[in-house]
Amino acid sequence: MKKLFFISLFSACVFINPLIAQNNSESMDKKIEEIIKQLTLKEKLDMCHAQSKFSSKGVARLGIPELWMSDGPHGVRAEIEWDTWNHAQWTNDSCTAFPALTCLAATFNPDLSYKYGKAIGQEARYRKKDVLLGPGVNIYRTPLNGRNFEYMGEDPYLASKMVVPYIHGVQENGVAACVKHYVLNNQEHWRDHINVELSDRALYEIYLPAFKAAVQEGKVWSIMGAYNQFRGQYCCHNELLVNKILKKDWAFDGTLITDWGATHNTKQAALYGLDIEMGTGTDGLTSSSKNAYDNYYLANPLRKMIENGEIEESVVDDKVRRILRLMFRTSMNKSRPFGSMNSQEHFDIAREIAQEGIVLLKNEDNFFPIDPKTTKTIAIIGENATKVMTLGGGSSELKTIHEISPLQGFQERFTNANILHAMGYSSGPSVYGRVIPSKLNAKSLRSQAVKIASQADMVLYVGGLNKNHHQDCEGDDRLQFELPFEQEKLLSEILKVNKNTALILVSGNAVEMPWISKVKAIAQVWYLGSEAGHAIADIISGDVNPSGKLPFTFPVKLEDNAAHSFGKLSYPGDGKNQEYKEDILVGYRWHDTKNIKPLFEFGFGLSYTNFDITNTSSDKNTYHSNDTISISCEIKNTGKVDGKETIQIYAKDKSSSVLRPSKELKGFKKINLRAGESKTIQIKIPVKKLSFFDDTNMNWKLEKGEFQFLIGTSSRNIYQSIDIKVE
Ligand code: BGC
Q1: For residues 153 and 355, what is the distance between their CA atoms, to the nearest angstrom?
Q2: What is the pLDDT of residue 337?
Q3: Distances (CA, A) of 257 to 20, 191, 222, 262
Q4: Out of 3-7, 562-566, 636-640, which region has the weakest mean confidence (pLDDT)?
Q5: Is residue 54 lining ligand 1, measured as CB closer than 6 Å?
Q6: Residues 361 and 468 in one domain
Q7: Which residue's C-alpha comes closest to atom 11 of ligand 1?
Q8: What CATH number does the domain containing 38 carry?
């Protein structure tokens, strides 16, 4: 009888368009309640934890499907075995590798973020995934963080603007985005236990906004908790972060999923907001033992506590309610599209994002672009000219159908040139969690490279970091700020024999550049995925004019970075605790307020043309708290080639009662201008966005007084300013 009732109920949900059902939350909520009534406690608990490395149970007898998840965030990860981390060796799971999220952030182009989300969502859907584990929006606090490449930079406003369209794009496919890692997972070293302490102001002004935007503007359907602790409680079951801020204050109606192995306590997991537990290593789970998943914190241990009366079953009902809501939006959404994989359109999107994200950092004597008709001899030196970068790095590793190397990109585009290549250095094989020294002889690699450098008209040095352990890789941090693998030595020997040398820097992080004055040009090219070599050649040849902007500051030396200015307790902590002593002064907020000149500032990036900004004005001089300020300016491409420029508006509070950063990004717009063309643009800023978080009464506070807007093309290249008053 019960079963029959369910069938009619379930068919009712699939006959109406579930997308409509999703909007009509009242009817969805009603159905969810009906389903919950029919579930046994065991069935409910089964939905709250993993049944394999990347899936959780549905209810087979009722036809409620399983939930399948996949990393994220740069492509859909290859299939992993049921109970181990080994690849399942499928032959149909190669994907399009999109550029790393630092590159996406560097485009300063929310439209591209939407395209990225939509395309990766289509791939996830085609691969029958319900939840895509990404994107990540942890703030770039230190250049040593091994995982910065998976995040969107140091500025909460930029990360917020870029994360929202990505989520919309993914979720249009009936696939949930899972924004990670909530929150304060700003380093990999000791990530599994370090306890982060910081002020409420820093939490609300710097580290939470991108997550809040993901929930309130992105309407994201799932969030992944972080590994670390915050104020003595693990983030995946944290009373303040999850129950109060995420679920109560922000009214998040989705599912909180743990990071893999980030659950630590049954009672807290039950009561402090965790909905789905994944990756717990209890009972030998890496090699699968019988009913191992029943030993998860939210499985038998929680069942016992409920049966003893220690915890009420309604606690589990709330989790199941959220999981069913996630399912109605994804796995039980019958009208979602079918998705697609490896289409030319996806590769084109990957290439377009890569082109727009590459940042030209230096270009002495217009070294770039290099005319593709050149018949000169070009020495392409460096391991990164050929190294596969979609492998390694941790959970964001990808099995892609192709990855065009920088060398291949140059060879295809510069067909008349005489291209020589030498590896120059070797980083050793990439093994997750281990550093294996290279067996190749460093001296002879170097001398081969120096030899071809001396024979060439110019050298393109393709180096930087890679996806090995202790580089740009999950699980631990970088051990050094300078270029690794003795690259500085190699570079200095190359420069002795050929001054016509430029650098193609492959990394997801800033590096120290004591040699900067000696190289002619530098392009920051990130990790670009499938179309890497094509996109790099597009920029170097001048087929595409560079327009990327740095989403984080490059300090001259590590000690100039805020997190590294306060001793070990600030970074990496004492092994147990860590204090974010720089408080709200992260990235350019620190450099500009303290007057510490960076090597390259936030928002910086050159072009092959020049721009000028004039005629800046605001619609009024005086505003009230509910107003929106409209700032307009004219931007002109004064050079000889077409190009894109990003106008950035920073606000400065001139009469604050508390310390405020000397400037904060409040708006930006990327514009395409033909050579000689000018356009007038408008950027709108709600007055409320000028508030600071007042921790004396735990709310945002807007103070009366004078504010200044700085309008420029980077955080330091300011063309004009406007003063306004708030009353
Ligand atoms: C990572 C997550 C990832 C998960 C599953 C964890 O180690 O921190 O970002 O989604 O593994 O692979």
Answers
A1: 18
A2: 97
A3: 25, 17, 7, 10
A4: 3-7
A5: no
A6: yes
A7: 260
A8: 3.20.20.300
Q: Can 259 be counted among the known catalytic residues?
A: yes
Domain match, 683 and 715 both? yes
Our answer on whether the CB atom of 182 is closer than 6 Å to any ligand 1 atom is: no
User: 15 or 409: whose pLDDT is higher?
Assistant: 409
Residues 479 and 434 in one domain: yes
pLDDT for 281 equals 81
Q: For residue 125, is pLDDT > 50?
A: yes
Q: What's residue 24's pLDDT?
A: 65
Which residue, by CA, sits nearest to atom 4 of ligand 1?
A: 260
Structural domain contains residue 566 = no
| pLDDT reported for residue 288 | 58
Question: How would you class 375 by CB atoms within 10 Å of its CB: exposed for 0-12, middle for 13-18, buried for 19 or more?
Answer: exposed
Query: Among 710, 365, 668, 405, which Cα is nearest to 527's?
Result: 405
pLDDT of residue 18: 40
A 10 A CB-CB count for 36 gives 16
| pLDDT of 5 higher than 50 | no
319 and 351 within one domain: no
Ligand 1 pocket, residue 133 CB under 6 Å: yes
Residues 6+ apart with CB under 8 A from 297: 49, 263, 264, 265, 266, 269, 277, 280, 282
Task: Establish if 567 belongs to a structural domain.
Answer: no
Check: CB of residue 174 under 8 Å from CB of residue 329: yes
Instruction: Using the mean position of ligand 1's atoms as its centre, give its distance from the Cα of residue 584 in Å.
Output: 28
Residue 480 has pLDDT above 70, yes or no: yes
**What is the distance in A from the centroid of ligand 1 to the CA of 259?**
6
CA dihedral for 298, 262, 117, 342, sign (positive or negative): negative
The identity of residue 633, as a single letter, is C
Q: pLDDT category, 432, cuts 50, 70, 90? A: low
Which ligand 1 atom minimizes the distance to the CA of 77?
Answer: 12
pLDDT of residue 436: 82
Q: Is 712 a domain residue?
A: yes
Cα 395 to middle of ligand 1, angstroms:
5
Minimal-distance CA residue to ligand 1 atom 12: 395
551: confidence class by pLDDT, cuts 50, 70, 90? very high
DSSP 232: T
Chain segment 400-414, per-residue pLDDT in tens: 999 999 999 999 999
483-531 residue pLDDT tens:
999 999 999 999 999 999 999 999 999 999 999 999 999 999 999 999 9
> Using H for helix, E for strand and C for coil, what is the string for 120-154?
HHHHHHHCCCCEEECCECCCCCCCCCCCHHHCCCC
Question: How remote is the CA of residue 512 from the centroid of ligand 1, in Å?
Answer: 29
Ligand 1 binding pocket includes 71 (Cβ within 6 Å): yes
Task: Extract the tokens encoding 67.
Answer: 């939930």
pLDDT digits (tens, 9 = 90+) for 24-61: 688 899 999 999 999 999 999 999 999 999 999 999 99
Q: What is the pLDDT of residues 269-328, one digit of tens each?
A: 999 999 999 999 865 555 556 678 999 999 999 999 999 999 999 999 999 999 999 999
The answer, yes or no, to whether residue 7 has pLDDT greater than 60, is no
Q: Which domain holds residue 495?
A: 347-552
Ligand 1 atom closest to the CA of 191, numbered from 1 = 8
Q: Which of 46, 130, 155, 259 is catalytic?
A: 259
83 and 206 share a domain?
yes
CATH number of the domain at 715, please.
Answer: 2.60.40.10
How remote is the CA of residue 597 from the centroid of ligand 1, in Å? 36
In a domain, 342, yes or no: no
**Are 307 and 420 in the same domain?**
no
The SS3 call for residue 196 is strand
For residue 59, is the peptide bond before it cis, meaning its omega torsion is within 30 degrees of 0?
A: no
Question: Is any ligand 1 atom within 6 A of the Cβ of residue 531?
Answer: no
Residues 453 and 325 grouped into a single domain: no
The answer to whether the beta carbons of residues 592 and 715 sit under 8 Å apart is yes
210 in the same domain as 180 = yes
The total number of structural domains in the chain stands at: 3
